[in-house]
Amino acid sequence: MQSSFTRNLLASVGFVLAAVTAATADGGDAHLAALGEIRVTHPWLRAAEAGGTTLLFMEIENDGDPVRLVRARSNAAGTATTVGIVLQGETISTVDIGVVEVPRGAFRMDPGGLAIKLEQLSEDFDVDEEIDVVLTFEPGGDLPLRAKVEAADATEHGHAGHAHH
Fold first, then answer.
1. Which among 157, 127, 152 is positioned nearest to 57, based on CA atoms?
2. Which among 16, 56, 57, 110 could disulfide-bond with 116, CB atoms 3.0 to 4.6 Å apart, if both were Cys?
3. pLDDT digit string (tens) for 88-106?
């Protein structure tokens, strides 16, 4: 007889394998990444110079129970933190907010609210390039994605060159 720990471990491994399979079975769509019940669409960030800072935005669809976005990382940045965006007059600033609760349903990280701030960039982020980022959800695990670089002053993801499904 299997212990509940063993059953849970095997179920978790199966969940992760199914999620990875689902994420890669879509033909490598750079505008969609999936992990179980979580789908990230249209991840994008602003152009920036090496050594600088940029903000990463995305749409998250969660068809399951609430999860927490606990970490983000990229080999192209020294640090990645979740931030709230604050507009004070003409000045835009950010405030570190740590872990983000992602409820069931649609959740947006956009220039009007939340973002992932990438700092100490190891290279220039030029328009139309794609940058690899990994998000960590609890429960769930790691979700690798590719974010498209938009103009430095972009306020939304450009939709040129792809269709929405």
1. 157
2. 56
3. 888 889 999 999 999 999 9
